[in-house]
Amino acid sequence: MPYSLPGVGAESMLIVLDLMGVSASSGAACSSGSLEPSHVLLACGYSEAEAKEGLRSHVRPDTTVEEAEEAAQRVANAVRQITRPGVCRRG
Predict the structure, then answer these.
(1) CA-CA distance, 64 to 79, in Å (whole number)?
(2) What CA–CA distances, in Å, run from 78 to 42, 58, 81, 90?
(3) Residue 85, pLDDT above cutoff 80
(4) 44 included as an active-site residue
C-alpha cells in the first residue's frame, strides 16, 4: 500500500516506524535498500523531493481492521514525532 507524507523524509519515517513495530519501506520493491529516490516514482512524474517521501506498508491477507487501524495510528504518531520543532524533517 503506497503513500506519501509531504515534507516528511522517508528515511526518517522508516527509522521511527521500525522502532514502533510498523513494517514499511521506501520506493519500489525493486529498489529496496537504496537511498536514492525511487526510479519508478520519478518515471511517474514525481519530483525528486516527492519521490524521497514515498513509502510502502506491507499488509498480510489476514490483517484485521484493528491491526490496520493500529498501524495507521502509529504512522500518525511517527509523523507528529518527526515534525516536532527541532527535528530533522528530510532525510
Answers:
(1) 23
(2) 25, 17, 5, 14
(3) no
(4) no
Of the candidates 19, 3, 6, 14, which has an alpha carbon nearest to the alpha carbon of residue 50? 6
Total Cβ atoms within 10 A of residue 6 = 7
Name the 3-class secondary structure at 31.
helix
**Residues facing 25 on adjacent strands:** 56
C-alpha cell of 49? 523531493
Catalytic residue among 6, 21, 30, 62: 30
Write out pLDDT tens, residues 25-73: 876 555 555 667 777 778 888 888 888 888 888 788 999 999 989 989 9
Provide the pLDDT for residue 58. Answer: 77
